[in-house]
Amino acid sequence: MSRAAESIRRLSPSYFALVMATGIVGVACEQTGYHRAAIGFLALNVAQYAVLCALTIWRVARHPDAVWADMTGHNTAPGFFTSVAGTCVLGGQLILVAGAYESALILWGVGVALWVALTYTIFTALTVKPEKPPLEKGITGGWLLAVVATQSVATLSALLAQHLGQPHRLHLNFLALSMWLCGGMLYIWMISLIFYRYTFLPMSPGDLSPPYWINMGAMAISTLVGARLIENAPDAWFLDSLLPFLKGFTIFYWSTGTWWIPMLVILAVWRHGYKRFPMAYDPLYWGAVFPLGMYTSATLEMSRAMRLDFLLPIPRAFILAAMAAWALTFVGMLRSLARLFRAPG
Q: Looking at the domain 3-199+211-262+282-342, which fold is it?
C-alpha cells in the first residue's frame, strides 16, 4: 500500500475541523468587512468539503474496520462530530457570504441526518463497550465536539428560519431552540468531567492537545445560536416569551467562553514554552483555529442582537488573530502534504 493510500486509511475523523475553521473564519471576515477574503474562504471551503467527503466515502467503503475502530474509541469517536459541524458551518457560510439558501438547505438536511446517526451510534457504542479507559485517558476537550455539532445544527436552523415562510419558520426556530438547550446540557455534563480531569488528575504536556480549545469554542457557538434566537424572537411566540431567558443565557455562554481564553493561553505557554513540547502540524490544530473564528463571529452577533456596541472592538481584534492562526495552520498542512507526496512509495 502506498503512503498516500495508507494516509487515507488512517484519515483522522476530526479532519472536517478544517471545514469548520475555514468556514467560520470566512463568516467572521464577511461580518467584519473583509468581503473579498470571505469569498476566497468560501470557494476554498467548498473544495475542501468536497475532497474530505470523497476521501471519507472511500475510507468507509475500503476500510470499514478502521472506521468502526475509530467510532468506538473514546479518543477518536468524538472527532466524527466535526462532519456535522463542518456541514452546517459551510451551510451558514453559503447563506451569509453568497446568499445560497437552496444549497444551505441541502446541507442542513445532511447535517441533521449525520447528527442523528452519529450521536446515537457513538454514544450507544461507547456505553455498551465492555472495556473502557480510565477517565484521564478517555476524556479530552474533543468530546465537546458533540456540543459544537448540536449547536451547529441549531445555528443553521435559525439562519434558514429567517428566510423561509410560515409555518416552516416556526418549526425551524423551535428546532433551533431545542438543539440550543440540548447542547447547553451536553456542555454541562462534559465540562464537569473535563474540569475534574484538569484539576485532580496528573496532566502532561502531551495531554493538552489542541482540541482543549473547544472548551471555549463550544461556548462561543452557543453564544452565536443565542444571539440568532434573540434576533428571531419576533417570528416565533415562544422565543418572544423567553426573551429574558435567551438574553441571560447568551451572556452566560459568552462570559464562560471568555473566561476560558486566558486559561487556555496560559496552558499553551506552559506546554510549548515551559515544557518545550514540540509544535508540529497536526490535524487537531484546526480544533484550535475554529474557536478563535467562532468567538469573533459570536461576539459580533451578540453585540448587534443585544445592542452591546462597547464589545465591538473585541471581534475587530480577534478576526486578525483568527486569520493568522488559520494561515499558519494551513501552511503547516500544505507542508505536511508536500512531505507525504515527496516520500517514496
A: Glycosyltransferase (1.50.10)
